[in-house]
Amino acid sequence: MVAAADRGNTRRRKGNRARRPRPEAGHHRLVAQPHTDDEGPVAAAEAAAAQISTPEHALGRPGRPLDRRSPFFIGMSATAGVAVMVGLVDMVITVRDVLVLIGLALFLAIGLEPAVSFLARHKFPRFSAVLIVLVAGLGVVGGFLAAAVPPLAHQTTQFVTQAPTMFSRLQSHNSLLGQLNERVHLQQRLQQTLSGDASGLVNGLLGAGQVVFSALTSGLILIVLTMYFVTDLPRIRATIYRLVPHSRRPRAILLGDEIFAKVGGYVLGNLLISLIAGALTFGFLLIVGVPYALLLSLFVAILDLVPVIGSTLAGLVVCLVALSVSLPACLATAGFFLAYRLTEDYLLVPRIIGRVLKVPALVTVVAVLLGGALLGIVGALVAIPAAAAVLLLTREVLFPRLDHT
Fold first, then answer.
1. Which one-letter DSSP state was computed for residue 38?
2. 341 with 334: CB under 8 angstroms?
3. pLDDT digit string (tens) for 93-139?
4. What is the b/e burial string over 329-344, where b = at least 16 CB atoms within 10 angstroms of the residue's CB?
5. What's the predicted TM-score (pTM) here?
6. Nearest to 295 by CA among 192, 170, 163, 158
7. How far apart are CA 292 and CA 290, in angstroms?
8. Burial class (CB in 10 A: 0-12, 13-18, 19+), 193
């Protein structure tokens, strides 16, 4: 009877093993091979893993969330939250320069997106549209540099040649530069700088070289990141919206796409206004006879990318150069930049950018000042579209909730 009972138990164990899925079905064939039965309780878990793996959910369905009301869970969450926040702040401080480059590249990619989407709507594949936009942009920049570098080199050589003449004007008591020299002692300060410690001059030159090298490296990284971002922008957009809960996702899509459109319109509009500023400055300087017209107009176009204060600072520099020609030339240059400032603020910006952003003038000035104080030129560049996004979220989300509470 004992033998018969043992044979019955053996048959039942074999039947149970036959009904259960094999542990090998839950054991990955590329991990921890060869597979043996020495895993003990893990083998049973592998059998359960084979049961929950289905064609629809190859890695199993997500389990029930943890009990968030548990004291242990609350304590661990609070501790982990503090530790993660401290780590994130330290990480942001450490890699802030890289984060600024990444943010600026994403900003430029969103700015190029309207052109890419325009081509994509006209039966161009996404990759072809991105390639066309990037090649066109690089072609414009390369063509401009090819046309501008020879005159810039000539004007730089001319400046070096005429430097002694300008230096002699500092010694003339009849010229404006000579009178300015008597008041602020420009010549004496320049001589003290040149006759200072040679090691300090060498260190300054080395520091300038490092700055130039860093700028070139950052520019190359910015171009590469922008190319990747504008290529993968649909996937990035979809991933961002996947982070929003399902019930709020449609509303988030409407708001997010509106913000993307505002940023894109701002970038393209700001580039167009800067080109207009550079072209008008170049024509005016040629008419008045101010030297280094191409160099100064390029300087104005670059600084005009910074809203509100960019063209004003550039105008001051150009006026100082015009002062070396004559007082009437300086006054005419100041009048030109004043007229252009009014034209840009009340005609160009409202027609080109204002229809897209709809940001009040006071908010624009405050946003540019705060952005410049926080992140410098990059902060000033992104301040206005960031303010437009904040105003949109405030108008569409915050104010309606406050009105119903």
1. G
2. no
3. 888 888 888 888 888 888 888 888 888 888 888 888 888 888 887 78
4. bbebbbebbeebeeeb
5. 0.63
6. 158
7. 7
8. exposed
